[in-house]
Amino acid sequence: MNDPRTVLDIKGLTVRLPKDSDRENAIEDISFCVNAGEIVCVVGESGSGKSVTAQTVMGLNPPDQLTPTAGSILLNGDEILNIPQPMLRKLRGERMAMIFQEPMTALNPVIRVGDQIAEMLEIHTDMSVSERNARVIEVMEDVNLPDAPSMAKSYPHQLSGGQRQRIMIAIALALEPDLLIADEPTTALDVTTQAQILDLIKDIQRRHGTAVLFITHDFGVVAQIADKVVVMRNGQMVEQGTMDHMLHHSIEPYTRMLISSVPPLIPPKRALMTKGKPILSTQSLVKTYGAKGWFGKGRVVHAAKRVELEVRRGETLGVVGESGSGKSTVARCIVRLINPNGGEILIDGKDIAGLSQKALRPVRKDVQIVFQDPYRSLNPRRSVGKSIVEGPMNFGVSKTAAFKRARDLMEVVGLSPNALDRYPHQFSGGQRQRICIARALAMEPDVLIADEAVSALDVSVQAQVLELLDQVRKDFDLAMLFITHDLRVAAQICDRIMVMKLGEVVEQGPTASVYANPQHEYTRILLDAAPGRDVDFTAGVSAVR
């Protein structure tokens, strides 16, 4: 049972946005509480105000841009809204702490991780050096990091994404605060690593009686860990209640939309493509990384080990696996952004693996790729129209014809052709990804590669982009290679699945068959790690199977 003591109590909180923003307030009249030993999930799409709420509690919002204008924030009964910065700095770490979404940007790349944990202790305690070092090892072991004494001497880049996030949790827990705020801490992680971090947070909550405020856009994660749920939209609170109430009894359309947007783990029926020769295939594809070290010895990483795949027109092959499995390496070899070390890459029967850059140029338009981050994929100084027409014009299409194609494709991807003169920052994340899809289609390719193309999007936007990708695959008769670590997403769009681990293909076959009866232990682990896998989200109001 939860401790009835209220750790965090937010009452009528309103935070004003700068002038000329799309709305007056970032959040408006928000009220909820978090008790000791309780996990409260704040869920909503991008722009809902959930992160602003968390950062206001921590006092991290820029005061000249986001200004609290009403309400109260009580931490263990003490008002902390608008208190002086010295007092607020003392509270951070001692009584409340925060875990951020991307640990690589939150950690200092030039300081060893053990020293970064020790820094928290040095600032807030009078511990001796030996006491601090002992506490560092203790807290690292508490978050289940292996060989803590050795890992404490590592730099962030030497650790995996999951290990870096555990270091962030260790820093947050070093002083055993009453309140832990986790802002999308698993969004950038593999499904198996995500499951481990969620289990760790639940374990910490149980063992230490910590009050946890968990920010997320994914109701699958909510179903996995939440005691209570707060739903936010456009800066306002839609509803709040227990997790059971939200999943089974909510009548709010927005909440039901968020729930139903979680892709089910059961693949829909899809007709398999068995006729016609593959438009894309690889044979014994090999890619290794590494260089010689002292005395000729160096670490060699086999990113792709004799990978063989084939995709026909009108078919989608999903490549799934954790970070480091080699799935993105295979995609980049196929599009020749990197050079393979061996094997063949056949596009409509022609091997492009060994072609020089000059010989490769005419083939470039036949294979296009959509990357994970649409903002980084588009030139911020170019209008989206110029980004779309650049490729066709480089291959001899006239400016008039290229812009006509761009206008047509904007309609295909569900955007107004009148928006071609706008710049990337004037679009939402989902709209930018639609523009990237239009840019790829402008080349009239035979093969479209989507490399984690929806993993950075809200689940509701993700569902829309998945539907779009599936539709353009049908309309343009494309062979699509869909790279993802999310098996829920793969289930909805892929005709066949190929599972990779450490550069090797461990299993492949029709999606429905692989999901219903996985043959490899690694595939079973990936399926079991999907958040909320025992909950059916398809009906809008879900029912536990």
Highest-level CATH class of the largest domain: Alpha Beta
CATH topology annotation of the largest domain: Rossmann fold
| Annotated CATH architecture of the largest domain | 3-Layer(aba) Sandwich
* Mean pLDDT, all residues: 90
Which geometry do the CA atoms define? globular
Write up this protein.
With 545 residues, the protein is of the alpha/beta class. The chain has 3 domains: 1-95 and 177-263, Rossmann fold (3-Layer(aba) Sandwich); 105-176, no CATH class; 280-289 and 299-544, P-loop containing nucleotide triphosphate hydrolases (Rossmann fold). Strands 6-7-8-3-9-10 form a 6-stranded mixed sheet, with helices on both faces. Strands 16-17-18-13-19-20 form a 6-stranded mixed sheet, sandwiched between helices. A 4-stranded antiparallel sheet has the order 2-1-4-5, covered by helices on one side. Strand 4 (67-75) and strand 5 (78-79) form a beta hairpin. Helix 4 (113-124) packs parallel to helix 7 (161-173) and helix 16 (399-412) crosses helix 17. The model is unreliable at 539-545 (pLDDT under 50).
